[in-house]
Design goal:
Layout (H helix, E strand, L loop, with lengths): L1 H17 L26 E4 L2 E4 L4 H8 L4 E6 L6 E6 L3 E8 L2 E9 L16 H7 L10 E6 L2 E7 L6 E8 L2
Antiparallel strand pairs: 1-2, 3-4, 4-5, 5-6, 6-9, 7-8, 8-9
């Protein structure tokens, strides 16, 4: 059982690395997605147990506040000089990127429904809740959308048949 969990965590970490910047982004954006909600002019910042985790912030103080991760993975960055790092906590993964020897927050991806956005949306939230909270007109059949504000984005992947949220990810904008 423990070996299976370790293998799954490593696979999840490797999947995160695929999104770190080794290719073109294919994630839907508010500008490119039909019926996408209007992006408010604000930063999207994830908070966990009172710890604010803004994108592009220096990672060391945040990681120190979060405490020991359940899992840690690093690999040579294909986009920057240094190591990309993934810290896996009970409810989310924190990915970082290096610049001049300093690590910065690249993304936070929810791994279960025990965490939510500041507006209360989590994995499993309904399409109605999503539309109400973000004043959007996303419909069943759409697979996701991204809100962009300042240096950050907040992306939702949806179950095409029900509209339920299946993935939530905060990301740093280039």
């Amino acid at each position: 059982m423990k070996k299976t969990v370790s293998i799954l965590l490593i696979l999840a970490a490797l999947m995160c690395m695929l999104f770190v910047g080794c290719g073109d982004s294919t994630a839907p954006s508010a500008e490119a997605t039909p019926n996408a909600p209007s992006a408010p002019a604000k930063e999207y910042v994830f908070s966990y147990n009172g710890i604010s985790i803004p994108m592009k912030a220096e990672a060391a103080p945040i990681v120190s506040q979060l405490g020991e991760p359940l899992n840690y993975f690093e690999s040579e960055s294909c986009a920057f000089k240094g190591l990309d790092k993934i810290y896996t906590y009970a409810s989310f993964e924190l990915c970082t990127y290096p610049v001049d020897g300093v690590d910065y927050v690249l993304s936070v991806r929810f791994t279960n429904d025990t965490v939510s956005t500041a507006e209360g949306i989590s994995i499993g939230s309904s399409l109605d809740s999503l539309n109400t909270v973000y004043s959007s007109s996303v419909a069943v059949g759409e697979t996701g959308f991204t809100l962009t504000g300042g240096d950050s984005s907040l992306a939702f992947i949806l179950d095409g048949s029900t509209g339920a949220v299946t993935s939530v990810k905060y990301s740093a904008n280039n």
